[in-house]
Amino acid sequence: MSLRSKSREFAMQMLFQWDMSQQAPVKLEATFWKSAKAADSTRAFANLLLEGATKELAVVDEVITRLAANWKFERLSAIDRAILRLGIYELRFTDTPHKVVMNECVELAKKFSSEDAGSFVNGILDAVHKEDTSAKSGGGATSGGTTAVATKKTALKIDE
Predict the structure, then answer these.
(1) Torsion sign, CA atoms 39, 40, 42, 47
(2) Phi, psi at 66, each rounded to 5°
(3) Cα(121)–Cα(100) distance, rounded to whole angstroms?
(4) Of the chain's two ends, which shows fewer C-beta atoms within 10 Å, N or C?
(5) What pLDDT, in 10s, does the model give residues 12-35?
């Protein structure tokens, strides 16, 4: 498993814990890293993903709510919410290639969630990518009166 893949797994685990406890991300990180062992670059990337996803939570959760048709947000499993939050944050706010994000999140869903979670996560993240692609090309994808626009992108460059 690559360092970035491991970072995403750690970030997903911290997002799951954050969803359960609503602790400040920095406090959660301190507690998490007492028991999890990782290289400094792996920790840094995982922390960056956690902090970014929690910072952009309102945007990310709105996307999940809008695209998870026929699913109430609260009824999604906490692990699926964590994976989707991670994936949508990384798609919308970083320069990570969409294929990498989608593949990594589908693999996390297969490993940590239910049998059908991989397909569900893939469907939501694919819809996000299509909205972003349409918005960038001037199509301004809309759904429910909301225009999807990728906001700021952050280059996640951490030495591996």
Answers:
(1) positive
(2) -70, -40
(3) 14
(4) N
(5) 999 999 999 989 999 999 999 999
